[in-house]
């Protein structure tokens, strides 16, 4: 246990003249036989914490977001115990981030930032409540903390929901039934009670749809499920609620994204609970940790937001995809087992380990005189938690919105406890110091408890620090054994997809960027291809991002240059079907439409082509292949320096195609369009010794 910083301790048997040394700015002095606490400082601002003056808003919690999209894709592939360790750091009470809330994407078969997440209904007559990994993740969170609040939100919808249109509100009864079926399935198949559901992530809302969704929930016995709207900006949803009482009754929470710690006037007028239902989205180094520390406090201080949700929960996707390491922690190497517990985990713990949903903010919260902020919460039973942050401007920049200039300087802050807190005699104190100058941060340190006699204490605060002062005991800076060292993706990798009882619907390490690739039991082929990987989305989804017109799943090391990719492929669509394997694929996520690489295509009409782009516009080679749907074919693509060659069923089909750019990228498989196709016996071999970038 560390002692208090920059404080001089002096004990005297009675009240006497204080020595000059003890009068230094920030000195801590014990006086008298009753060991009363007095701090002598050059300048100290006093802040009163008093519940007798009334209370503020009810605290709803701090959470993380899995989805939007495929941000937890690689976590499921971790071996034990490392996968459980990551989950402990996120959800286990009094251990790490100890999150109160988990928000997940309702998969819609579409690209939603870093990949696609599968729908539970690829088609109207298809229901499967075991696809993807969000069900698993919610159960793992509940296993660690049964009180975790579960929130669900669609980013996209399968194409059938729109009845041929790219809009989910033209047939609102279909959309509402689709969303409610996901919530019912969570309960029926996984015993998960979803607490809140949203409308359509960062897209226009429709008031009539929201009312219908409320009615559909109620008819399904889901009256307890609240509605969040509209997971975009404060307006126009706030004004719509003020103008439409029926809409106001349907909406429980107004959720805004990246609000910059401020709430709109109309949002406050509604009297609704206000959440930063998606925030942060910042690289999780120390500046990212400073961003998160500032947001967690100031979202309430400035905007009366009672919950803040981090996008994303854990950065568990290939780092060359968009928004690398924009999670509370990082777990992007299941092949090595390496993960990193980043500073945002401990900034979260300063609040989550000392307060719970249902606690209430005091009205006496605000900004510190020389920069920074403080919030105080109580459980109504005389427990008190105070969280202080002094993050400087340049050390707490978030990715969005722009942060106006402000300054922070060292200061002494005196806190005076009044009301039911005046009888508090002991307070736990925990501190995090970023130490940007020395680059030696110290997070979540427990200091010597404060002993009070007159309900007053003073802290000497430097820049870029976070303190928690609380009556709550039992907090802990959890620590698992260190994970294995980081390592690049294996240079030789293969998968025959021969898994009889797969724990997840997707094959390890494949990251779908358009379309959905699932394990498939091929009942028509009891031979060597009885179990395969199948692309299953057959019509374009109602997109959130710009899905490609072709389907694509990437795998491997983004730094791969010279490599050979081989795979057995099976086209199911006659005449117009087509499949490909690829190397050096350079883009995914929201930029997937412009992906380049070396793509080797075969088609059901008996032809092939080689292109340097996913769109198939720039042709490097083409000709007859004799391929057709309904037969298995083996494709092999080799890229060495600027030259590429391809084999079909073991024979050279083309060679020495010139592929100058891109110089590196992932391996991949995919289809010509949204069509059924199968893949088997995938293998990749990269040349040893190539320089690597981050995977």
How is this structure best described in words?
The structure is a single chain. This protein is an alpha+beta fold. The protein contains nine helices and 39 strands. Strands 4, 16, 17, 18, 19, 21, 22 and 24 form an eight-stranded antiparallel beta sheet that branches. The longest helix has 19 residues, at 172-190. It is globular and about 90 Å long. The two termini are 39 Å apart. 52% of the residues are buried.
Query: Which residue ranges are poorly predicted, with pLDDT under 50 across at least 5 consecutive positions?
Result: 1-42, 689-695
Ends distance: 39 Å
The number of distinct helices, counting runs of at least 4 residues, comes to 9
Assign a percent range to the helix content.
10-25%
Shape, per Cα inertia axes = globular
Strand content: 25-35%
Largest sheet: 8 strands, antiparallel
- Counted beta strands: 39
What structural class should be given to the helix and strand makeup? alpha+beta
Average residue-wise pLDDT: 93
Kindly provide the radius of gyration, computed on alpha-carbon positions and rounded to a whole number of angstroms. Answer: 28 Å
């Amino acid at each position: 246990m560390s002692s208090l910083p920059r404080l001089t301790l002096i004990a005297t048997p009675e009240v006497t003249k204080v020595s000059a040394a003890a009068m230094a700015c920030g000195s801590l002095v014990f006086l008298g036989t009753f060991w009363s606490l007095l701090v002598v400082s050059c300048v100290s601002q006093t802040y009163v914490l008093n519940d007798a003056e009334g209370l503020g808003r009810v605290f709803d919690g701090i959470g993380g977001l899995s989805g939007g999209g495929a941000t937890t894709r690689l976590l499921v592939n971790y071996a034990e115990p490392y996968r459980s360790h990551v989950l402990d750091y996120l959800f286990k009470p009094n251990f790490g981030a100890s999150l109160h809330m988990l928000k997940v994407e309702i998969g819609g078969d579409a690209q939603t930032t870093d990949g696609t997440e599968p729908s539970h209904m690829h088609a109207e007559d298809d229901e499967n409540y075991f696809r993807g990994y969000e069900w698993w993740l919610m159960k793992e969170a509940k296993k660690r903390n049964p009180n975790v609040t579960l929130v669900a939100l669609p980013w996209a919808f399968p194409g059938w929901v729109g009845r041929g249109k790219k809009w989910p509100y033209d047939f609102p009864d279909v959309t509402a039934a689709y969303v409610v079926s996901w919530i019912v399935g969570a309960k029926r198949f996984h015993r998960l009670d979803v607490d809140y559901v949203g409308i359509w992530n960062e897209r226009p809302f429709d008031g009539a749809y929201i009312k219908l969704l409320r009615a559909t929930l109620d008819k399904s016995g889901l009256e307890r499920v609240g509605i969040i709207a509209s997971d975009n900006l404060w307006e126009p949803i706030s004004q719509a609620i003020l103008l439409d009482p029926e809409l106001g009754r349907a909406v429980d929470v107004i959720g805004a994204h990246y609000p910059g710690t401020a709430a709109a006037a109309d949002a406050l007028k509604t009297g609704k609970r206000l959440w930063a239902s998606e925030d942060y989205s910042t690289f999780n180094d120390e500046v990212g940790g400073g961003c998160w520390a500032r947001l967690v406090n100031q979202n309430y201080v400035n905007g009366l937001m009672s919950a803040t949700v981090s996008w994303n929960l854990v950065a568990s996707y290939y780092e060359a995809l968009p928004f690398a390491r924009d999670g509370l922690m990082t777990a992007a190497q299941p092949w090595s087992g390496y993960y990193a517990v980043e500073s945002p985990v401990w900034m979260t713990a300063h609040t989550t380990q000392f307060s719970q949903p249902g606690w209430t903010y005091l009205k006496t919260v605000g900004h510190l005189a020389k920069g920074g902020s403080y919030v105080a919460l109580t459980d109504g039973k005389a427990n008190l938690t105070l969280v202080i942050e002094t993050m400087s401007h340049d050390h707490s920049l978030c990715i969005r919105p722009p942060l106006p200039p402000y300054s922070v300087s060292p200061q002494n802050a005196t806190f005076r406890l009044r009301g039911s807190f005046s009888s508090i005699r002991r307070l736990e104190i925990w501190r995090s110091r970023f130490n940007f100058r020395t680059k030696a941060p110290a997070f979540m340190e427990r200091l010597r408890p404060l002993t009070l006699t007159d309900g007053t204490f003073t802290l000497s605060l430097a820049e870029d620090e976070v303190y928690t002062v609380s009556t709550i005991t039992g907090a802990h800076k959890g620590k698992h054994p260190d994970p294995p060292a980081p390592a690049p993706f294996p240079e030789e990798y293969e998968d025959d997809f021969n898994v009889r009882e797969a724990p997840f619907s997707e094959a390890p390490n494949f990251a779908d960027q358009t379309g959905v690739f699932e394990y498939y039991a091929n009942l028509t082929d009891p031979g060597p291809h009885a179990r395969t990987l199948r692309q299953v989305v057959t019509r374009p989804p109602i997109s959130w991002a710009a899905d490609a017109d072709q389907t694509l799943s990437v795998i491997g090391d983004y730094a791969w240059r010279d490599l050979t990719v081989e795979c057995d492929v099976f086209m199911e669509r006659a005449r117009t079907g087509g499949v490909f394997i690829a190397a050096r694929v350079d883009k995914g996520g929201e930029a997937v439409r412009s992906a380049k690489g070396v793509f080797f295509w075969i088609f059901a009409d008996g032809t092939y082509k080689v292109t340097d782009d996913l769109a198939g516009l720039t042709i490097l080679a083409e000709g007859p292949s004799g391929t057709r749907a309904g037969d298995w074919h083996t494709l092999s693509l080799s890229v060495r320096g600027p030259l590429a060659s391809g084999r079909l069923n073991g024979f050279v089909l083309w060679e020495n195609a010139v592929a100058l750019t891109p110089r590196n990228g992932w391996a991949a498989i995919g289809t010509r369009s949204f069509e059924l196709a199968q893949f088997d016996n995938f293998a990749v071999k990269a040349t040893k010794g190539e320089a690597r970038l981050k995977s």
